[in-house]
Amino acid sequence: MYSKAGMIATGINPETELVEIVEIPKHKWFVGVQFHPEYKSTVINTHPIFVSFVKATITK
After folding, report:
1. How distant is the alpha carbon of residue 26 from its chain centre?
2. Ranges of each domain in the chain
């Protein structure tokens, strides 16, 4: 599908076979999700996707 441009499906729902997560590994930080990580996130227990994004923005 989009793998020629570097995008890969890294999360596929095993029950429905729908793509839930896509990434571009060669990009500094590119992740697209179909689910809602904010529903599983709190101030004390932040979802890893948000932590990863913030770390990518503050590092060189």
Report:
1. 14
2. 3-58
